[in-house]
Amino acid sequence: MSAISDIGDKTGAALAASVKWAAGIIDPPLRWLQKKAGFNGMAAFFLAPNMLIFGIFILVPMVINFAYSMTGGGALFLPDRVFVGGDQYGRLLTCSDYSRPITCTEDQFWIAVRNTAIFVVVQVGLMIVLALTTALVLNKSLRARSFWRAVFFFPVLLSPVVVGLIWRWILQRQGLLNYILFQFGIEPTVWLTDRFWAFVAAVGVSIWAHMGFYALILLAGLQAIPKDLYEAAEMDGTRPARVFWRITLPLLGPNLLVVLVLALIRAVQIFDEVFVLTGGGPGTSTLFITQYIYEIGFASVLRNPGLAAAASILMGAVLVVLTLIQLGVGRRKDPKEAAK
Q1: pTM value?
Q2: Domain extents for the chain?
Q3: Class of the CATH-defined domain 82-339
Q4: Would you say residue 191 has pLDDT above 80?
């Protein structure tokens, strides 16, 4: 044990010496830079690498994507494409009756929009209710509480592709779920080849995969609420339902807003697990906007990168508008913001 302890002490001393040596080299130029640039200049200096990466991998692709949306043809490289102005946007938005995708020039796009809108409303609504319920349960004094928290968070650690493969194995005709139902004398159901059940499966799998993340955010909000408020309510004999509506829910508002914004963005961008699970089928029952963009831009024989770029920009614009509306509503409900 003494030999192991000596090795550990020597290793720690060597690491400390290395850090001190590196700090001694870096410190003089940083001190000189701080004198020349000042506090704001140093902040810009440390932010510069992150902003450079953000510009290269986010801003530049956004500009290129917008340029693609103004071009036509099947060529992949931008210099080989033909400038068509806003024709791609006009093609996407041309409809005789927006409630009937078949009347639209790009009917697949509007089918994907309709499916995505229904998916977002159902999935986000159920996600928030289930995540809040889970957080409330996990916030109580349960036996093995840490274990249950880890169980609910575990699916978040899985790759979306792995999630899709697991649930396709469970839900396929010869899968685990039908085997269990058969043991109870229930006829097997074609979960992934029926339009209704395939959509339900897409919603359920997405909730299972991501609910733990949102429950964790809400759990953090619940733990930040002062216990004194609950003790005072208990002393006054306030009913639990009234405590929830008058204390818990209002104080959890900022966390709920964060969850709503993140869940909405993720739901609109749903792709990986549903693509692996159903491939957008049967038919177009689980075709969502992101899959439409992928297929029209890359996978289709008659690919059109300009049309895919235009669809992605429209989707991004809708997300920005929805997010701003939600943040505006959240600020109005915030007493501090209202006071300003």
Answers
A1: 0.85
A2: 2-69, 82-339
A3: mainly alpha
A4: yes
